[in-house]
Predict the structure of Fimbrial biogenesis outer membrane usher protein.
Amino acid sequence: MLCCGAAAQEASRGLPAQCSAPEELLSVAVGGTERGTFIVRVSRDPQDQVSVLLPAAALRPAEQTYILQRLDCDGEAFVMLKPELQVRYDQSNQAVRVSPALNLLGSGSVDLSLPDPAQDTASEPQAQRSSWGINAGAQGNATYRQRDGAGLDVPNSYTGAGYVGVGAAQGRLAGYAGLLARTGTATQSAATEFRGVAQFTVNPNLVVYGAWNASPNGNDPGFASSAFRGVAVSARGGFTRQLDELVIELPVDAEIEVTVNLKRIRAFRATAGSFTLRNIPLSVSGPSRVVVYITDESGTRQVTTDVPGSLRALPPGAYLASAQAGVSNGTLLGYGAVQLGLTNGWAVSTQAAAQRSPSAETSFSVRASATYTQDRFSFAGALEATRATTSAGQVSQGLTANLNAGTGVGAAQVQGFVILPLHELRGSVVGAKASYSNRNWLVGANGSTGFQPQTWQAGASATYFFGQRGSVSAQADVLPGSYRVGLSASFIPTPNLQVAAQVSTAPTGSQISGSLGYQLSPAQAMRLNVSSSDAALSYAYNREVNVQATVGLRGASAQATGALILTNGTVQLKPALAQKALLVQTGIPNVRLLVGGTVVAVTDARGEALITELPLGEVVSVRVDVASLPFGVALGAEQREIVPPLSGVTVVDWRENFRAFRFVRFFWSEQEVATGTDVLIDGERVLVDDEGYGLTPSSSEVLRGEIRSNTSARRCQVDIQPGDERAVCTPSSAAQDQLTQDQ
């Protein structure tokens, strides 16, 4: 609606304005942008409705679709606007405002999966970054005061190892060469071997490796000894994840900049109207934040879209492939593997391996498997065939099927498995395991049995967590003719001090042990381990270098590794050289991560862990060691499948999977404990016990909550400071609480 005088007025285009309409000098704005001061012809009908004729110069080329009719008034070009446009006339401010009509401006689009036409492909390529590094390590182990099973003294022994090497990377080439020396009581002399690895990146999805006395994965071999000499290739593809389209509204022409997770994807100028961004590249598996910055004459605004991460390591159409061939101690080796992601949660894989020894012994195996993952249900099936021939010509072969299925119901997990050796069904095994976890409890049970006598086993465990303070665990395992029962407890008196004790019994005897750990700093830790047969003190430092040392009553060991790296004139000291790795972010310190059942990393003070022991061309399943999870930490998923990089470091943001809690004691006042109450924090209810303690979410920011009595007759606001172990009602809310009691 249009108003006269000082109020804004909406012009009715039912009656066209005539050139005889009075002229007014007005400020004109179209689509939210000022166009300047123009002579505008303004007319009123008998109902006091206003119509305007704008000078043609006030409109831009993209806005020509706004014009209903062009008029020539005394040689000046004016235009009559279409009736669907909203025009407001403000007489008091001498202004005319025309709102944008995107449906009249048309539409445009850009496909971000295509090359940027504005990029100069003929320009000289940037100089390739070069990197050089020298690494070294030394370790030693000694055993003394040992006895064998008969109680006789065992001679003292020692082993030692050291390595030194040089690594370099230039453009698509990378390599490492060095020496590894070992010595020990048995050899009495040092054995030295040369080793080297090379890596050539054909393109971002194809890498070729070569190795001599090392694993063909391009990484620093460290203390690992290998006799493999050969080549390998790793390939991947189909990992592009895209946001199909994002529509933005542009009332006027604007400069557009598209970013994904703070990385600039494309910048260009777009015409006014409804503009569609197509095929925006996203993070392969993690969450993506798409931010579009729109800059025009009115300033800069942004459109933000959050896209959750993919739960599947292999999205539909993605594949991983690897192959290697070589010789190890005279034995010819060959291996190949392919993994492919299908639609609807399915993935398939196949592996084949063959070898032939100098004595003409041969072996061959092939395995095909399929997995299905959807929401909280998973299924895996595999079929493996093996064939081996001895030097005498004897042949053995087998065909085995494996089935595994699991599901989650609330906080419970249930899983069952079947192993079927089809060539000998009597050796089949069936089993199941179940677990339940909440903020305070973690309980589990497992069992399996074969179809032959004395092939069963069963076990159960239960752990109760006292927030971040401690836990008590009980475990029992039973199998034919044997058993084991254990009880353990741990307690954290201060954030840097941890005490633990374990006791177990079995038919072979009982054992008791304890430990005391102290975190000297985020990079340094000491631990004392004591048992009925030994005691040892250990020290670990992990920052620029990695140092570990242990001294005990029956043995001692020490190890130190480090690398000096020069990159574009910058020198850095690192624990190791690595051409490819996974940087897993949990946000929680001291979380042990497993790959293939082996601990490969422990998160540092920032809650991050670098995993360098990665298979070639296979999805990596990273699992949390739940048994050693820090106290007061709630865990979402126990494991995550990750696609390792062909080169470089892949950052895996897993922080949303972990949540830490701590005990806070709540008070109505400095002297009155808020016993038997509830505390609401961001809509989450925290139960407070009879001593005023409640298990509260940990946060680096101040948490604001409300203490409520069981009858809701008393309530007050409370601020929980980071790291504080007590929280008292704020003064203003405490006064209100007192008033409520008085009433």
